[in-house]
Amino acid sequence: MRSIFLRIEVFNIVREFKKRNRLTIHDFRTEEYLKGFNKKIYLFLNQDIFKDNKEIYRAVIKFLKTSLKNEYLYYSEIMVEEIIKDFHEVYMKKVTDSKFILAPIKDVKNPFKNKSSDDFSKDYTKLNNISSGYIYDVIYNMNHLDKGKNIKSILKKKEVSTILLLDDFSGSGKTVVNYLNKIDLVVEGKKIIIYIFHLSKSAEIKINQCIASLINNDYKLNKYMISKTLNEEHSIKEIENFEENIIKSLHPLGFEKSKELLSFYRNTPNNTFSVFWDTYIDVWNPLFPRKETVSFEQYKKNREIIRYNIAAILGIGTRDEILEEISYKYLVTIIFINLKRDISNIDLENILAYNEIQLKVHKKDMEEENWLKKDKLKLTPKSKNLIERYEINKIESIDQLISNNVSSNFLDCDDSLSVLEDYKPSTSFRF
Length: 431
Hints:
Blueprint: H1 2-20, H2 25-30, H3 37-45, H4 48-51, H5 58-70, E1 73-75, H6 77-95, E2 100-104, H7 116-127, H8 138-144, H9 151-157, E3 162-170, H10 174-183, E4 191-199, H11 201-213, E5 218-226, H12 236-246, E6 262-264, H13 296-314, H14 316-325, H15 328-338, H16 346-352, H17 356-368, H18 381-389, H19 398-402
Parallel strand pairs: 1-6, 2-3, 3-4, 4-5
Helix pairs in contact: 1-3, 1-5, 10-11, 13-14
């Protein structure tokens, strides 16, 4: 009976979500976040942790349902494209001539990191039939110009009068402010138009305060949407507790507690409540997982490759015996440490799909079950005995563990996946 009521709720949530975000059938057929959306929301709201603790997490469940139905913003590819073209036609063509450049807003502390602003800039040129040569990475060129050259003289020579700074989202405003402070004197005397697709209210205030303090250029901030005030009925403390203590998120309430409720078709900003994008394998599967993290589907693929490789080295029977005695995650951790690899190694984090906090919880659990020595990354006699009994020393490198040599007949053998795990191994192992 409860299942029927939930399905009716899901139907109503999806109907309102679709209507509010102006989504089309095409969007639901083509965008990864939206494919099978009804089923995804049903599973999201019906996770195991809620089944046994419905009363405890009543406020969290209510928040998820209410926010998805009434508040959550989703920007589809078609919608983003339409708004980008409108901005260029209605605004940019009126305020500038052909002598302008587009500059992605980069992280000053990590300028080589690819940001969504890079993709946003490429989209802008493509959609508006502008040559990609108009994209000019100011920060990169500041660090790579030949001796005796400077950006100011280059822009003057090219008669550039306007710079369009682009980004899809700003939650705290810090990245934008740091960027403006960095380039202000370098590109002196220009009209600088800042276009950020979606802004939080606090980011808008911070950026405008920064603009008011800068004197070397004429700045103008533009945006398509600004975050709305959250529904006061939401139990923020209970949501934060759930994200921090159950999901073990690095960013409860979103990065810097931004408390945003939005996703783009490409990715979800980490400023969004982490309950929507953060993964905790075997505990929590998000609705809009961030693309740079290891998804549950990718975790399952990686797990099957590793299980296959363990069987190839030790034998299927031996592997199955080991996994009756110890969990897969414990076994992989023991193999890592036995190979003298650091448990905090990024490879292990990715294989287990854990963040830093989740990995610490995993380590503590292994200590309590006497597989690891307390406060030390060393194996106990119990772990060493396991290694000796099953000749786990035959696994001599991490590469042996993660290489994808799964043959085509692997799926037909008795050791293949269960009916619920409808994946086929990819051609390369990706963390």
